[in-house]
């Protein structure tokens, strides 16, 4: 693909690239976000090209007199170098001279614009203060069992944090990345920022997006890490970077901890994400998994007395229901009776 060899100035001149920076076209956004995920080595060129495109809108009063003199000095230096290397030549015929003169002025104008923009960007960056290390603030949010919350990050990202889950992140993200650490489960509505990938570190996996919605379930006591993509695109890698999958909308990936392998899986919205809307959902769920979810959801401890004659699976959908109502609904198909004593629950099999 041609873009793999592009430099900043070539991206700057590309019409499709400029539309991506200046417009909000879903098709163009999808192409460039996917391309950037697949070509991370081009990040610096893309950043510079983006600043050049946006720099066309800068006002004259944003540049000091010293900066203007420095910019024009760069242009004069460029002119002198062109003369020294014989780039200005006399042309024999008047027709050839006219044609080449037009081309020379065209490319010279483009070069001057490029020099002005690049110089202005570099000068502007030199004046921006660097955030001292001691000012970087790490924020931690943790939900105990029975509690769920919504968190707003500094970049506009919204995080729905499930019960018995913890998230940590910088108060203000670094210029080149947005990094979050997760233990447990969270749903992310990631604010679009094509040049600052949003990465969730969850145990053995990292999930990277540019602007999308996805769910990560990575509880320490469970055998499988599940990542479900609702919208956009994400890249999932293991900690060794030996396994890598890119998910499109409505796709999921499961990571089996024991086998240490990534596998694409079916996506079911209700099963994977309904929790953030206050809905408890079971679909042919084993009793062990049901107990685990109920303990997190209601903040209780569940013990089991006896055992079923054969393995049971449970299905049901409960929206903002009490623990007692849920247990009453699933006790018959589950084949058990129950007792609730404050935060302790006992399931009894006869």
Give a brief outline of the structure.
With 350 residues, this protein is of the alpha+beta class.
Describe the structure in your own words.
It contains 9 helices and 18 strands. It is elongated and about 95 Å long. It folds into 3 domains: 126 residues, no CATH class; 135 residues, Sandwich (Jelly Rolls); 71 residues, Phage tail protein beta-alpha-beta fold (3-Layer(bab) Sandwich). Strand 8 and strand 9 form a beta hairpin. It starts with 7 loop residues before the first helix and ends with a strand. By secondary structure, it is of the alpha+beta class. Strands 1, 2, 3, 4, 5, 6, 7, 8, 9, 10, 11, 12 and 13 form a 13-stranded mixed β-sheet that branches. A 3-stranded mixed β-sheet has the order 15-18-17, covered by helices on one side. The protein has a two-stranded antiparallel sheet with strand order 14-16.
SSE topology sketch:
Blueprint: H1 8-13, H2 15-22, H3 26-38, H4 43-55, H5 65-84, H6 94-127, E1 138-143, E2 149-152, E3 158-161, E4 165-170, E5 178-189, E6 198-202, E7 205-209, E8 213-218, E9 224-231, E10 234-238, E11 244-247, E12 252-256, E13 261-265, H7 269-273, E14 279-286, H8 287-298, E15 301-305, E16 313-319, H9 323-334, E17 337-341, E18 344-348
Parallel strand pairs: 5-6, 15-18
Antiparallel strand pairs: 1-4, 2-3, 3-5, 4-5, 5-8, 6-7, 7-10, 8-9, 9-12, 10-11, 12-13, 14-16, 17-18
């Amino acid at each position: 693909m041609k873009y793999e060899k592009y430099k900043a100035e070539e991206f700057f001149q590309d019409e499709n690239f400029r539309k991506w920076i200046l417009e909000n076209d879903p098709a163009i956004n999808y192409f460039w976000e996917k391309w950037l995920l697949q070509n991370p080595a081009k990040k610096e060129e893309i950043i510079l090209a983006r600043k050049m495109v946006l720099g066309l809108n800068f006002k004259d009063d944003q540049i000091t007199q010293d900066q203007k003199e420095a910019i024009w000095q760069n242009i004069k230096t460029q002119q002198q170098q062109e003369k020294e290397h014989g780039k200005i030549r006399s042309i024999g015929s008047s027709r050839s001279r006219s044609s080449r003169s037009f081309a020379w002025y065209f490319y010279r104008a483009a070069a001057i614009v490029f020099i002005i923009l690049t110089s202005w960007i570099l000068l502007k960056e030199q004046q921006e203060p660097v955030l001292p290390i001691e000012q970087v603030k790490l924020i931690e949010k943790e939900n105990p069992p029975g509690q769920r919350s919504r968190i707003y990050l500094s970049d506009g990202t919204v995080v729905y944090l499930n019960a018995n889950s913890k998230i940590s992140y910088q108060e203000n993200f670094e210029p080149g990345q947005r990094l979050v650490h997760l233990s447990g489960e969270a749903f992310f509505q990631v604010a679009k920022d094509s040049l600052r990938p949003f990465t969730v570190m969850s145990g053995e996996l990292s999930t990277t997006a540019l602007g999308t919605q996805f769910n990560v379930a990575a509880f320490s006591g469970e055998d499988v890490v599940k990542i479900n993509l609702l919208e956009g695109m994400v890249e999932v890698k293991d900690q060794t970077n030996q396994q890598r999958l890119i998910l499109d909308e409505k796709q999921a990936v499961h990571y089996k901890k024991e086998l240490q392998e990534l596998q694409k899986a079916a996506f079911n919205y209700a099963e994977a994400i309904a929790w953030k809307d206050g809905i408890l959902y079971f679909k042919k769920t084993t009793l062990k998994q049901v107990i685990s979810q109920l303990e997190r959801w209601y903040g209780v401890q569940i013990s089991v007395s006896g055992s079923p004659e054969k393995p049971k699976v449970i299905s049901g959908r409960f929206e903002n229901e009490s623990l007692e109502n849920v247990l009453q609904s699933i006790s018959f198909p589950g084949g058990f009776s129950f007792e609730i004593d404050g935060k302790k629950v006992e399931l009894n099999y006869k």
